[in-house]
Amino acid sequence: MRSLIPTLLTLIAFSGPLLAAPNGADLFSRHCAACHGHTGEGGVGVPISLPDFLASVDDTYLARTIRLGRPGRIMPAFNSLSDAQVNAIVGHLRSWEPEGLKSSLSQRPIKGDAGRGKALYEKHCIVCHGERGEGGSGTGVTFSRPRDYPIIPPALNNPGFLASASDAVIRATLIRGRDGTPMSSFVKQGLSGQQIDDIVSYVRSFEEHPVDEVGHDDTETAIVMASSYGLSETVENLKRAAIGKNFRIIRVQHLESGFVEEGKEDRREVIVYFCNFNLIDSALKLDPRVGLFMPCRITVVERDRRVQLMAINPKYLAKLYNNHDMDESCQQMYDIYTEIMEEATL
Fold first, then answer.
1. What are the tens digits of pLDDT across the range 308-338?
2. 237 phi and psi, to 5 degrees?
3. DSSP conformation letters of 16-42
4. pTM of this structure
5. Strand, coil or helix: 283
6. Using an 8 Å Cβ cutoff, are 313 and 222 in contact?
7. Which of 71, 104, 163, 238 has the most CB atoms within 10 Å of its CB?
């Protein structure tokens, strides 16, 4: 037995760091702060450090939200995190609760009437959360542009929300509201407990017709077309086609410009930048991340006397955004790219 003690001490010494509990603050900083702010104040994502929010939700709601995300909205599902890591993030969120404030949800059964709740929803909720509970448009970050709400109302018909929020969570949200946001207490608005239960029942009925999840797995990453013209003529055709679609040419440069010594760029690779400012403005309102591939650009490459045009496929990017609002915009951009490229190569 005595001979085993050094071995056990060695194992304990080396396993200590491996057994350390996940750091919720570090995990939040890495995975959540970019959207929700480092102190949960909100930004692209909704604010999650509000006292009314923390008092209206339980740990199950927080954990499921992290795990499931919001399909079709900007909130992704964090499938790669372990249960211990998810619980550590939940614990970090709870550290923001004011002294003495604890989440306490009534677990009494909901006995509401969805029919009556629908009429109440249309009167009190539809203006913010939409006719079918689809929520507000965009992400809430609109830079200096005017917007209707300081916080974009969440989607209530979202399968991720409905799977995460119990009836008690929905009821508590209606009762408390969200001080600091446009969501006011329904009790202060004069609704009775029964009327609130009716709205909860109507919101729960959205589960019967959930929104479709975004799915573009078979979408090509790029749009590629062959040109029967030479490189220079194809570039000129491309510029004319873009201008004809109400775009402004920003610049034309060799693809390698800035990456190699000036004058040594491959002259057979040219990139054309063009922009429609109204289009980019509307797209940025929906999701600021669209700025990663704006302004529009099409690359013209010559290899073995063959010329090709290439552009990133906006429909593929829609899958990466996880934002239903961007789907239509990405489809519009795909159509524009295709029309410009076809016109330049005819």
1. 999 999 888 877 777 777 788 888 899 999 9
2. -60, -40
3. TTTTPPP-HHHHHHHHTHHHH-TTS--
4. 0.70
5. helix
6. yes
7. 238
